[in-house]
Write a structure and sequence with these properties.
Blueprint (H helix, E strand, L loop, with lengths): L1 H14 L6 H16 L3 H6 L3 E5 L6 E4 L3 E5 L9 H16 L2 H21 L4 H37 L5 H14 L13 H18 L1
Parallel strand pairs: 1-3
Antiparallel strand pairs: 2-3
Helix pairs in contact: 2-4, 4-6, 4-7, 5-6, 6-8, 7-8
């Protein structure tokens, strides 16, 4: 998984335009350094952490196995201060520290094997589509929402441990919600709704503030 993460990161670096704004790059690097420093020693030492800022209008970020972090410059207009940027980065680092990529790869393999076995047995195309759809909406999407909630929880404590204000994680999702437009029902979404995320973050806030 680490090798795959590093390969994908290099591919993205080749395909996406890397920001030449040194001020933004230094700012993102500074926030990332504090978030990474707040990890436990094993998690810090396991990977060679690397951050790239991509010149893109999308408000997004990612972290890959191996400690590779990408931040799109459009995120900086939504994450309006260092605390909100730390909330996003800590969430993405939370996915890596919880090995969510490994879990997703394993479940994707199981799903592909199940559909391939059905094809071998000569099951009709319409039944196969129903099987595939049921696997996505009945099993894999709820599991992904659990991963997202876990990363939210890990992230808010990680950013607090790094000295950032965890209350700003709620403000961040208010900002995200304001630009999201219409959303599909939460049942059919791989991410919890902003309202659900903010409610869960509020339930963790007392402990996060105490940790900070």
């Amino acid at each position: 998984m680490v090798q795959q993460g590093e390969n994908l990161y290099q591919q993205i670096q080749q395909e996406e335009e890397i920001s030449t704004d040194s001020r933004n790059t230094q700012y993102v690097q500074c926030v990332a350094d504090h978030v990474i420093a707040a990890l436990d020693e094993r998690q810090r030492a396991n990977y060679f952490w690397e951050i790239t800022v991509f010149d893109s209008e999308q408000a997004n970020a990612f972290a890959l196995p191996g400690g590779k972090i990408g931040v799109y410059s459009g995120l900086l207009s939504v994450a309006q201060n260092q605390h909100q940027l730390a909330a996003v980065m800590a969430h993405e680092v939370g996915h890596v520290s919880a090995n969510h990529n490994n879990e997703r790869a394993s479940r994707s393999t199981i799903r592909n094997i199940g559909v391939a076995a059905a094809q071998t047995l000569g099951i009709s195309n319409s039944t196969l589509k129903a099987l595939d759809l049921g696997a996505q909406f009945g099993l894999f999407l709820p599991f992904s929402r659990i991963q997202e909630s876990e990363a939210d929880s890990l992230g808010v404590f990680l950013m607090a441990n790094a000295g950032f204000d965890p209350m700003e994680s709620i403000t961040l999702w208010q900002n995200m919600n304001a630009i999201s437009g219409s959303r599909s029902p939460e049942l059919l979404s791989t991410h919890p709704s902003p309202r659900s995320r903010m409610a869960e973050l509020r339930s963790l806030m007392s402990s996060a503030l105490q940790l900070r």
